[in-house]
Amino acid sequence: MTAPAITAEHLARSFGPTKALVDVSLEVPAGSVCALLGRNGAGKTTTVRILTTLLPADGGRAHVAGFDVGSQAALVRTRIGVTGQTATMDELLTGAENLETIGRFCHLGAATSRRRTRELLEQFDLVGASKQLVKRYSGGMRRRLDLAASLIHDPEVLFLDEPTTGLDPVGRAEMWTSIRSLVAAGTTVLLTTQYLDEADRLADTIVVIDRGLVVAEGTPEQLKASLGRPFIRVTLPEADAAALERVRRLLGAEAEVSGRSVSAPAPNGLTTLGEVVAQLGRLGAPVHEVGLEYPSLDEVFSMVTDHSGKPTGPDAATEGAA
Amino acid sequence: MSQSAVTAERRLQQGVLDAYTATRRFLIRGKRQPDVTLGSLLTPVIFVVLFGYVFGSSIIVPGGNYRSYLMPGLFAMTVLFSAANVSVAVATDMSEGVVDRFRTLPIARSAIIIGRSLSTLILGIPVLVVMIVCGLAVGWRADQGLPNAILAFVLFELFGFAIGWLGILVGLLAGSAQAADVIVNIPIFLMGFISSVFVDPSMMPAWLRVIAYWNPMSALVTAGRQLFGNTIGPPPSGVWSLEHPIATTFALAMVIVIVVAPICVHRYSHSIR
């Protein structure tokens, strides 16, 4: 199957005077993971709710697993799994009862629902808790059960809305492991997150949205490369003003001194680093450390979602923006 | 398109299965919340003591026993109360994430709501049984034979089922459990007390008497009293609903279900949180 599993074209949605989505387009190839990255209120959840048939769009079109989310909602629902931000498991049912109920609602029949329930409890390490009421589950266990419930009918496309928000580091690591194993099995995943490291670790492509608009998209590497150049940082053993000044002059006009280190853009990456190291040797200044640094995705994120209006970094690529 | 051509018959079959699954789920929940079931039992049992003995001691029923007169009224109050509880439960459901989960599943739009309604009916049965036992304990008897008594309880449950749909509608519209609780209790009390549930309305002031006579609760209770043999005198002349209480109750319950149930289903499937 070469057709994209998810396509959204110019989705828009307002709630009264609030424009939650202005113009969001995205395409997720089958079998890949796309992270929808944005701050709170950026429009991530609204996008997911439209794509999962929970909310009609005011404008634009979207197809999931080949079906229109508006006119063919019933067919979309047979092919998707959804794990929302809020826990959706029934607290008064056991883990196993919850999964079995969802299985029956997916028309798997009683026997298949029970078999899938057993398999999923095992896969998500919940066998021991299967006969416990969900109200006694920890946060991480609830999320895993929720995820398991989304998978009971082997969906083609899985939507995960902030799957790790509110989890402790252990719970988060467990969720990541679970998600990775699904991806390895070929499920298409659209996940939303506020965390860059999460997007970086899990996603093939990242779509950054802000105030209802796509502000950047690409692979994690592309985003880093297009939005920030590497820079070189030279750190001296002590804050010796004269030595710092000499290094600053060596590094060129854009060099900046901060504390006992000097940093400057390194447009040619390692080549620049080699040249600088050689020149520093000739200069004879005492050097503690020299290194090449890349902007983190966090910095990239801040750059593209900067609301202060000031210019954001050199050639702040806004590829994909409307 | 062949893939999307699900036959109507198959859809109906799935719909019935979905409603069964939903009912099953609510019944498991009900079983895990015995306090809720006990809670809905508490008020009617208190009423047996309060009205049967506290007020009842000074209420004289000509040619009869007040507690025998009262019990059909309390059966009616029992089904009314459980119908009221459902609105709070539905409002709570709607505020939880599980609604979103259900709405992304390929289930019939009506299944969850029908499951809620049916499970309320089923969970109400043991409560009614306890009330019958209470009634027998305080001297109430059904003298018109078992078939009539069974017909009476079918009418009570049918009425409760119909009012339950109104309760569901309130729960869907209320916005929060607290709001639902407030909205639903006022009409319940008015319906219960301005009627022939507790006393004979013939002594009420004229304007109130008209309301009490035409109150559907009065028709239900009159039907019950007739079928149990607990009546005191003939029904007031000119009040059609009390002259034909069984037909009235049956027809009214059907009309409520036919009108309100589709509204509930529509409202549920279009609710946006």
Q: How would you characterize the overall build of this protein?
A:
The complex is a heterodimer of chains A (322) and B (273). With 322 residues, chain A is α/β, with parallel strands linked by helices. Chain A contains 11 helices and 14 strands. Chain A folds into 2 domains: 4-89 and 137-225, P-loop containing nucleotide triphosphate hydrolases (Rossmann fold); 229-293, Alpha-Beta Plaits (2-Layer Sandwich), CATH 3.30.70. Chain A has a 6-stranded mixed beta sheet with strand order 6-7-8-3-9-10, sandwiched between helices. In chain A, α3 (95-105) packs across α4 and α3 packs parallel to α5 (139-150). Chain A starts with a strand and ends in an 18-residue tail after the last helix. Chain B has one domain. Chain B has 11 helices and no strands. Chain B is elongated. Chain B starts with 7 loop residues before the first helix and ends with a helix. Chains A and B meet through α2 and α3 of A and α1 and α4 of B.
Describe the SSE topology.
The complex is a heterodimer of chains A (322) and B (273).
Chain A: E1 4-15, E2 18-29, E3 33-37, H1 44-51, E4 59-64, E5 67-68, H2 73-79, E6 80-83, H3 95-105, H4 110-123, H5 139-150, E7 157-161, H6 169-184, E8 188-193, H7 196-202, E9 205-210, E10 213-218, H8 220-227, E11 231-235, H9 241-251, E12 256-258, E13 261-265, H10 270-283, E14 289-293, H11 297-304
Parallel strand pairs in A: 3-8, 3-9, 6-7, 7-8
Antiparallel strand pairs in A: 1-2, 1-4, 4-5, 9-10, 11-13, 11-14, 12-13
Helix pairs in contact in A: 3-4, 3-5, 5-6, 8-11, 9-10
Chain B: H1 8-32, H2 34-55, H3 66-94, H4 98-103, H5 111-137, H6 146-174, H7 177-193, H8 206-214, H9 216-228, H10 240-243, H11 245-270
Helix pairs in contact in B: 1-5, 2-3, 2-5, 3-5, 3-6, 3-7, 3-9, 5-6, 6-7, 6-9, 6-11, 9-11
